[in-house]
Amino acid sequence: MVRTAQRSERGPRSSVWLEGKARRGGRGGGQPSGLDRERITEVTVRLLDAEGLDKFFMRRLAAELNVTAMSVYWYVDTKDDLLELALDAAFGEPALPDPAADEDWRDQLRALAREYRALLVRHSWLSPLVGRFLNIGPNALSFSEVIQRVVRKTGLPAHELTGAISAVFQFVYGNGTIEGHFLARVASTGLTPDEYHRHAMTEVTRSPDASEVIGESARIMEARGGDTVEEMMERDFAFALDLLVAGIEAMVARSRD
């Protein structure tokens, strides 16, 4: 309660990266031995992957580390601080292209989009945190910098760059979020994605209100091709990404005209 009162007196919390707390080690002398912030963050990511954001609590983390909850508070002030650290740790995973390399911007943009999609699918807890925090940790900033430099290579005017970034990466955010949540739900049933899809399509067509729409969706999916759920998702993602790249090319040509 004291911690909450002190925070409210100085205004809303901004970011762990702006409040002098994203340092190595704990708050000073006397912190528990055998722990460091990197290890705590690593275990946090592992728990979030295994149990989800809703089931993540400091006591559960402490039990996994085999320490008391107060021991964890030597290294972070709140659970939000720890979630923000975990968020940035995840953003250190994608393989980033070198914008200075002699490589076509289209290939580099596609590579970045695929890495971001894979990150969101791999860590289904990540997407809610992207909007909750400022996301200005070192890994997130590196990711953003590479995106900006690659999109600059397109030849778009400066005032259109943010729109292009939004079009591509907000699409990827939505696509990866939905895919990650879908796969998490499938895993909870014990079915494979293909089994779940067949079962869901069979069930929903029993509803008179849904059968016509679902039937049309099934015909569209059949025309699209793909024998498995993974193949269908991959084809949709690749085609949508091609549409966005083509849109950028068209806007570049229009700006030159």
Automatic annotation (TrEMBL):
<dbReference type="InterPro" id="IPR009057">
    <property type="entry name" value="Homeodomain-like_sf"/>
</dbReference>
<dbReference type="Pfam" id="PF00440">
    <property type="entry name" value="TetR_N"/>
</dbReference>
<dbReference type="InterPro" id="IPR001647">
    <property type="entry name" value="HTH_TetR"/>
</dbReference>
<dbReference type="InterPro" id="IPR050109">
    <property type="entry name" value="HTH-type_TetR-like_transc_reg"/>
</dbReference>
<dbReference type="Pfam" id="PF02909">
    <property type="entry name" value="TetR_C_1"/>
</dbReference>
<feature type="region of interest" description="Disordered">
    <location>
        <begin position="1"/>
        <end position="35"/>
    </location>
</feature>
<dbReference type="GO" id="GO:0045892">
    <property type="term" value="P:negative regulation of DNA-templated transcription"/>
</dbReference>
<dbReference type="InterPro" id="IPR036271">
    <property type="entry name" value="Tet_transcr_reg_TetR-rel_C_sf"/>
</dbReference>
<protein>
    <submittedName>
        <fullName>AcrR family transcriptional regulator</fullName>
    </submittedName>
</protein>
<feature type="DNA-binding region" description="H-T-H motif">
    <location>
        <begin position="57"/>
        <end position="76"/>
    </location>
</feature>
<feature type="domain" description="HTH tetR-type">
    <location>
        <begin position="34"/>
        <end position="94"/>
    </location>
</feature>
<dbReference type="GO" id="GO:0000976">
    <property type="term" value="F:transcription cis-regulatory region binding"/>
</dbReference>
<keyword id="KW-0804">Transcription</keyword>
<feature type="compositionally biased region" description="Basic and acidic residues">
    <location>
        <begin position="1"/>
        <end position="12"/>
    </location>
</feature>
<dbReference type="InterPro" id="IPR004111">
    <property type="entry name" value="Repressor_TetR_C"/>
</dbReference>
<dbReference type="GO" id="GO:0003700">
    <property type="term" value="F:DNA-binding transcription factor activity"/>
</dbReference>
<keyword id="KW-0238">DNA-binding</keyword>
<keyword id="KW-0805">Transcription regulation</keyword>
